[in-house]
Amino acid sequence: MIRKNPTGHLPKVAESAFVDPTAILCGKVVVGEHVFIGPYAVIRADELDAQGELEPIIIGDNSNIQDGVVIHSKSGARVEIGEKTSIAHRSIIHGPCKVGSQVFIGFNTVLFNCSVGAGSVIRHNSVVEDCHIPESFYVPSTSNIHSDTDLETIESVTADASSFSEDVAQTNVGLVQGYKRIQNEL
Question: Catalytic pick from 15, 33, 47, 166?
Answer without folding.
Answer: 47
